[in-house]
Amino acid sequence: MSNEWADWLSRNGTRQFHLARKAGWNAFVQAAGREPLRRLDRGALARLSPVERADYDEARTVWNANLPTIRTSQLVRSYSIMDQVVASSRRDGDRLRGSVVIDSPAGVGKTTIATRYARDFHRRIYEREGALTDEGHQRLPVAFIPLSAGVTLKGLNTKILEFYGHPGAQRASTTALGSLAVDCVLSCQTRMIVIDELHFIDFKHRNGMEVSNHLKWLANEMPVTFVYVGMELEAKRFFDEGLLPDQSTYAQTSRRATRCPVSPFDISSDSHYQAWNYLLRAFEEHIVLADARPGMLTELANELFRRTQGFLVSLTNIIDRACWIAIATGTERIDETVLAAVTVDNAGERAASRR
């Protein structure tokens, strides 16, 4: 017999989105937010049957593991930069559009920023223009293309075609792939292409230079705004295209691309410390534990920063693992003891041990 928590799980369980394919991206774009999960106090917990308790704990694990996207200062600033660049998408087809480069260290939420912005953009186009083009093609306002290590020119074009589900992705010649990719973009009236994991391109290697030049060709051929996402791209010389220092003034990318840096949190000033606490309070409101309360995380602000160094991926890891420990041990809250029991990611643990 089903119960409230099993029913909640059937509607709101862990979602699998394969963003690199149009079906997965569309599912991500169209997914509704999770239904709120009711927080039970200890008395209500004790009255659950064993089956209900198991389902409720599983529901809480799913809920607590999916912390909301918070409008941090980093996200707000990034959205502002992207809004400015996307304004150039209104240009006529014979004029070049700018591109955005979200550039940051690992673990600060750059892909989350890009996908959430692109999702909102996609939804706005759908609402205004509908799911089909005037020619009857499926409208795909956004394409999401994650790169892999050692990507080549052919590999880049293949990934674009695989996103659209084009049958020629594996059969067409290298020469034809680029033209097919352009046809897909034009037919589906795509207006934004997110290229993720751009740091996999070695801009000093021949293959990397070919990919870099091909991206410029695509930007010339496709009436879209490119959003590039990668780690330490300025240090990897993405903007000067791997040219020698005295030649860097000839790099087209440096003039066409707008860098959008994203940094980890910092608590070295009062304003930065307040921003860190704002983030923790927002996460507190989301957590479902019987003894959760306001201040549960902010009282641990310094320790959470020591353990995570302000990197979002480490913070979300430590919080959802702490929630699981609190449920499994019956502690039903996050405190210093629970936090000490959490093993976070390797980078966070190494850095914390030096503090």
Record field, number of beta strands: 5
Topology-level CATH name of the largest domain: Rossmann fold
Write the element-wise H/E pattern from the N-terminal end onward.
Answer: HHHHHEHEHHEHEHEHHHHH
Oligomer category:
single chain
Proportion in β-strands? 5-15%
* CA radius of gyration: 23 Å
Poorly predicted residue ranges: 243-251
Biggest β-sheet description: 5 strands, parallel
Overall spatial form: globular
Strand order of the largest sheet: 2-3-4-1-5
| Overall mean confidence score, pLDDT | 89
State the helix count: 15
Tally of discrete structural domains: 2
CATH architecture descriptor text of the largest domain: 3-Layer(aba) Sandwich
Our measurement of the CA-to-CA distance between the termini, rounded to an integer number of angstroms, reads 52 Å
The helix/strand class is alpha/beta
What is the CATH homologous superfamily assignment of the largest domain?
P-loop containing nucleotide triphosphate hydrolases
Please give the CATH class of the largest domain. Answer: Alpha Beta
Range of helix content:
40-55%
